[in-house]
Amino acid sequence: MSARRSGKRVWPVTRSRSSSPRSHSRNSCWRSWAAELAAIPALRIDWREVRHRVQGRQQLPDSVWVDSLDSALLWIGKRNESAQFAAQLDFTRQRHPALLSWLEKRPLQALALHQEWPRLLDVVGWRAANPRPKIYLRQIDLPGIHSKFIEAHRGVLTELLDLALPIEEVDSSRSGASQFAARYGFLDKPVRIRFRLLDPDITTLSTLETPDITLDADSFSQLQLPVKNVFITENEINFLAFPPCDNAMVIFGAGYGWDALAKAQWLNQCSIHYWGDIDTHGFAILNQLRHRFPHVQSLLMDQPTLEAHRELWGTEDKPVITDLPLLTAEERSLYDQLRDNRIRPGLRLEQERIGFNWLRTRLLC
Questions:
Q1: Are 352 and 346 in contact (CB under 8 A)?
Q2: CA gap 86, 6 in Å, rounded
Q3: Quick one: pLDDT at residue 259?
Q4: C-alpha to C-alpha distances, 335 to 110, 126, 129, 289, 318, nearest whole angstrom
Q5: Residue-by-residue DSSP string for 158-169
Q6: What mean pLDDT, rounded, does the chain reach?
Q7: How many CA atoms lie within 13 A of 150 on its CB side?
Q8: Where do the CATH 3.40.1360.10 domains begin and end in the chain?
Q9: Fold type of domain 192-363
Q10: Mutual orientation of helices 79-95 and 117-129 as an angle, nearest 10°?
Q11: What does R_g of the chain's alpha carbons equal in angstroms?
Q12: pLDDT at 77
């Protein structure tokens, strides 16, 4: 494939005979092999006459030649694929020469995408002609191309766009399929934050008490509420059933990363309490949250809570084993017991198994 792209001359290719047959059985094998080679039209064979003390004069292959790329393709049955790849090369050379290196690197993937290739290049061309588009992928108006096509091919489009676009038009801090749109200047669906106000005296929507509210992250960051305590839980039922508490709110932590919460600078003026599972992943999430809010305190993620619910212990399938430097000494002690299986292998206590009376007595609301 690389030879076809570069035009380098690599033909003919030859393979010479390494030895002569010395036994009757080997002579028979050589003759059978020679007959098979002679039956292949793509090969050119130079023959050599040898004398055998039993078989007499024998004509055996001395060297076998593959004179051209076409002969090689005929031999392995890949002439159609080669023609297809050559067409992709020519098409790409005319449309986006910068992508030829991708074809050379991934010829088999290119062949698998041959039907989609023109549309993929259409997407690349559209984005190259529209710097920092600031529209949704759904708004790209190209024949035969819709947002689901782009979403289904985000992996290959990422590689192609990285090659085709100037470096300043690629946000390298964004990676992965979920951040494809942001990486190339498209608008993405806003991250939404769901919360409940736990104090009936704090009203936001008319006369509704403790409503279940969902806002986009930017709107959430602009809130001005008399809240002193913020609780974060990963379990929806715990979120919905969280008991009333003065000057407090509870946030449902599932479904978005902590970057969304970090936009709300007013949270730095609140006491934040994270309630997660007592397992290695729960402590890993707590450690991650502290990268954004160093003052976060854990809630019900301690040894007494674990011991008080022994009959409700479960099993964690794939524990985290990395060090978590942002845990407190008490949290790190329990985390080490869990990851080192000192209590029992794969121990976990899911937060929804903790009794609500146990929660109420520790909230001090």
A1: no
A2: 12
A3: 84
A4: 47, 50, 52, 16, 14
A5: HHHHHHHS-GGG
A6: 87
A7: 25
A8: 192-363
A9: Dna Topoisomerase Vi A Subunit; Chain: A, domain 2 (3.40.1360)
A10: 10
A11: 34
A12: 76
